Amino acid sequence: MSKYNAKKVTVNGILFDSKQEAEYYELLLKKQELGIVKEIEVQPVLNLSPAFEYFGKKRRRTDYKLDFRIVYSDSVEVYVDIKGMATETAKIKRKWAESTYPTKHIIWLCKSIKWGDKTGWIEYDDLVKKRAAAKRGAK
Q1: 44: burial class by Cβ within 10 Å (0-12, 13-18, 19+)?
Q2: Model pTM above 0.70
Q3: How far apart are the first and last CA of the chain?
Q4: How many CB atoms lie within 10 A of CB 30?
C-alpha cells in the first residue's frame, strides 16, 4: 500500500503504483494499437541535480521519476505523471524539472468522472481550476 492507500497493480508484467496508472497504461496501449502512440516508456527518470559534495558531506543525486514518456505518431514527446493528490514535494520537483528541462512537455493527469474528458482524464491544473470555479459558484 502507498501513502494514499493506492493499491499496486500489474499489467503485462509491469508493476504500477496505482490502479489509475495501470488504467492509463492500458489506454496508451490501445492508442498504440490504433497508431496514435508510437512509443511508451514506463517510469522515465529526469535528473534534477547530480550527486555532489557539500562541506565534506556527500549528497545523492536528485531525480524526478515520472509515470510515462509517450512519443506520438507525429513525434511529439510528452512526459506524464498520474496524480491522485499532489504533495508539496511533487509540486517542487515538477517546477524544478520544468526549469531544468524547459523543452520537455511535462503534464500531470488525474482521473475525474465529473470534470474529465470522455475517458475521464483531465490535466491536474485544469481540474484544480474547475474545482475552484465550481466552489466559488456554489457560494
Answers
A1: middle
A2: yes
A3: 37
A4: 11
